[in-house]
Amino acid sequence: MVQDSHVLPAPDRNDLTAADRPSLIGPLDTIQVDVFNVPDLSREMQVDASGRISMPLAGTIEARGKTAEELASAVKAALRARYVRSPEVTVNIKSSVSQVVTVDGQVVEPGLYPVTNQMTLLRVIASAKGLAEFARQDDVVILRTVEGRKMAGLYNIEAIRRGAYDDPLIYANDVVVVGDSPQRRLFRDFVSLAPLLAGPLIAVLQ
Questions:
Q1: How far is 4 from 80, CA to CA, in rounded Å?
Q2: DSSP secondary structure string, 116-154?
C-alpha cells in the first residue's frame, strides 16, 4: 500500500528498541562485579578459559552460559553462604569475546564479529565490509547448532533487500558463509525444484 504522503514517518520509541535478547557470559569475557558496601570485593575480572570466576569469600563460581543477572544471584548466594549479611551484587559485562559470529566466504573482510541485540544477516555482512565484487547473493548459508543438532539455512541477500522476506536474526556461535560451500551444495536439489524466492530453506545436517 502506498500512502498519500511524501514524508517517511519517524519511528516511535518501540521501533527504536530491539526485542530483548539475553547476553550470555562466556570464557575470556571481561566483567565488572560490584558488591554494595563491600568495596574490597568489587572488581573487574576476566572469566577463565573454563568459564569460571574466582572471588574472595565467594570462591569459584560457574559463569559460562549465565546472564549478568544470573551470575549476580550466584555470587550473592555464595557470599551469603560465607556469612556476608544481605549482600547486594551487580554484574556488568564490560567486553565479550564469546558472543561472536563467524563470517566467511565472499565478503570483503571475513572474520569474527561481535553479536549485539540487533544483529541480523544484512548487518553482519555490512560489518564484514559488504559482499565481495562477484559474490553470489543467492548463496548465503547460516550454520547454527540448536539443541545439539547442526542446522543450516539458505538465504538470498537480494531477496531480503527487496523485501521478499525478513532479514534473519544472527546469534552467537552462528557461522555465515557467502558463496559456494559444502553446506550450500546440500541445497542444490531443493533449489532446482523450488527457486529461492518465497523464503529461506532450512535443513538439519545431523
A1: 63
A2: -TT-BHHHHHHHTTSB-TT--TT-EEEEEEETTEEEEEE
Give the domain extent around 56.
30-95
pTM above 0.70, yes or no: yes
151 and 198 part of one domain? yes
Cβ neighbour number for residue 114 with a 10 Å cutoff: 15
Structural domain total, the chain: 2
Give the integer Cα–Cα distance in Å for 82 and 54.
14
Tell me which DSSP letter residue 169 carries. Answer: B
CA–CA separation, 197 vs 176, rounded Å?
20
Residue with more model confidence, 1 or 97? 97
Q: How many CB atoms lie within 10 A of CB 69?
A: 12
